[in-house]
């Protein structure tokens, strides 16, 4: 399936897909983004913002689902935005850790970033509850809107599988526990860090993926 560059999820959420290397970027309202891609497709992102009549300066908050470069590399273009990331992944951004961020793998120039808020499990940001879901990285998070039953999963869970655990900080046991926790949620839509979103029958998809992956872990 070829993803659209811009996909309207609902009246409040827009998904931006720049390339297969970039994470999906989720625009929440007019002032918040969840993940920012690698930053390598700056021109394309600029054009997208122009089409939806926004400026980079309009973004006041960035919520990073985890520490990898394909999700944080674009942070630097949003100079007015305050960066939010789980407390366990925050040191990678603050230290500019090239190895743990995988910046070299993506050809990125990793420099220290200021983290304005270190998230914890149960925090509420931009209408979403933070769920600490380690496994892909120690500080991976999902974001859950209980009212609209929307789950933004980063690289914890995709439409057809789960995130890798063979990268720095990955842990299969932690991922299994995270999947078990997620399986108890009421979910109508799954918005993953890469690939296509699940906009219908999400509960069925969630159960199928978790059952399949749990058998392999």
Q: Could you explain how this protein is built, in words?
A:
A seven-stranded mixed beta sheet has the order 1-2-3-4-5-6-7, with no helix packed on it. Strands 8-9-10-11-12 form a five-stranded mixed beta sheet, with helices on one face. The protein has one domain: Metallo-beta-lactamase, Chain A, CATH 3.60.15. Helix content is 23%, strand content 21%. The model has no long low-confidence stretch (mean pLDDT 94). The protein has six helices and twelve strands. By secondary structure, the chain is α/β, with parallel strands linked by helices.
Keywords for this structure?
217 residues; globular; 23% helix; 5-stranded mixed sheet; 7-stranded mixed sheet; single chain; alpha/beta; 12 strands; Metallo-beta-lactamase, Chain A
Condensed summary:
This protein is of the alpha/beta class. It is 23% helix and 21% strand. It has helices spanning 42-51, 69-72, 90-95, 98-101, 172-182, 202-216; strands spanning 6-8, 13-16, 25-28, 32-34, 61-63, 82-86, 117-119, 124-125, 128-132, 141-145, 150-154, 189-192.
Q: What's the topology here?
A:
Blueprint: E1 6-8, E2 13-16, E3 25-28, E4 32-34, H1 42-51, E5 61-63, H2 69-72, E6 82-86, H3 90-95, H4 98-101, E7 117-119, E8 124-125, E9 128-132, E10 141-145, E11 150-154, H5 172-182, E12 189-192, H6 202-216
Parallel strand pairs: 4-5, 5-6, 6-7, 11-12
Antiparallel strand pairs: 1-2, 2-3, 3-4, 8-9, 9-10, 10-11
| Helix-strand category | alpha/beta
CATH fold title: Metallo-beta-lactamase, Chain A
- How would you sum up the major sheet? 7 strands, mixed
Question: Could you tell me the mean pLDDT?
Answer: 94
Low-confidence stretches: none
Termini separation (Å)?
28 Å
Number of domains: 1
Structure summary, number of beta strands: 12
Widest sheet, order of strands: 1-2-3-4-5-6-7
Please identify the top-level CATH class.
Answer: Alpha Beta
């Amino acid at each position: 399936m070829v993803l659209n560059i811009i996909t309207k999820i609902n009246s409040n959420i827009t998904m931006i897909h720049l390339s297969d290397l970039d994470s999906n970027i989720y625009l929440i309202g007019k002032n918040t983004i969840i993940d920012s891609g690698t930053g390598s497709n700056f021109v394309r992102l600029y054009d997208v913002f122009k089409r939806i009549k926004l400026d980079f300066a309009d973004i006041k908050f960035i919520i990073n689902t985890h520490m990898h470069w394909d999700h944080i590399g674009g942070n630097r273009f949003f100079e007015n935005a305050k960066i939010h990331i789980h407390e366990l992944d925050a040191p990678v951004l603050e230290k500019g850790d090239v190895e743990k961020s995988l910046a070299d793998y993506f050809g990125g120039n990793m420099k220290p970033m200021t983290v304005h808020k270190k998230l914890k499990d149960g925090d509420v940001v931009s209408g979403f509850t933070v769920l600490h879901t380690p496994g892909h990285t120690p500080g991976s998070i999902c974001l859950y809107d209980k009212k609209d039953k929307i789950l933004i999963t980063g690289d914890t869970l995709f439409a057809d599988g789960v995130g890798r655990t063979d990268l720095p900080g990955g842990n299969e046991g932690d991922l299994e526990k995270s999947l078990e926790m997620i399986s108890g949620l009421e979910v109508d839509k799954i918005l993953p860090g890469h690939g296509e979103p699940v906009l219908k029958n999400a509960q069925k998809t969630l159960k199928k993926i978790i059952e399949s992956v749990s058998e392999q872990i």
